Amino acid sequence: MKQFLSTALLFVISLTSFAQDAQRKKEFNLGKNGLAIDGYDPVAYFKQGKAVKGSSSLAVVHQGVTYYFSSVENKEEFKKSPSKYEPEYGGWCAYAMGKNGEKVEIDPETFKIVNGKLFLFYNKFFNNTLKSWNKDEASLHAKADVNWKKFIQ
After folding, report:
1. What residue ranges in 6-150 does DSSP mark as E strands?
2. CB-based contacts of 90: which residues, under 8 Å, 6+ apart?
3. Do 44 and 29 touch, CB atoms closer than 8 A?
4. Is 71 exposed, middle or buried (0-12, 13-18, 19+ CB in 10 A)?
5. Which residues are paired to 113 by β-bridges?
6. Tens of pLDDT, residues 54-96
């Protein structure tokens, strides 16, 4: 009986995990290439203070989302604490998430780290949303947190 209950519990946990992974893949900004942050290394933003392209040979899949890394050290650091390095709002533009609750593409090289969290922004056609974010960061941040919960439970 104990073995049956253990097996049943593992099955339920696996189904829950699969459902969460599927939701993340659906809601996160994975671009045409299926990669988070267009293949940029999420740890490099924190350690190097800049956007650095990762390599397919240093890939990690975390809860259904694939990240590339520029070094073995960054890959291992991410594996220790993924939530510390994942971009906010699934990698969508923080400004758009706060302003309208919309998923808008980003420029991986336009970012800001606030209170240990990575925020990414749209920056094309003379429209750098980081500048707009900076003008009303506290309000936009609070609204973006609420809006993102509509996509990820």
Report:
1. 55-62, 65-69, 107-114, 117-121, 123-124, 127-128
2. 24, 27, 28, 29, 103, 148, 151, 152
3. no
4. middle
5. 118
6. 999 999 999 999 999 999 999 999 999 999 999 999 999 999 9
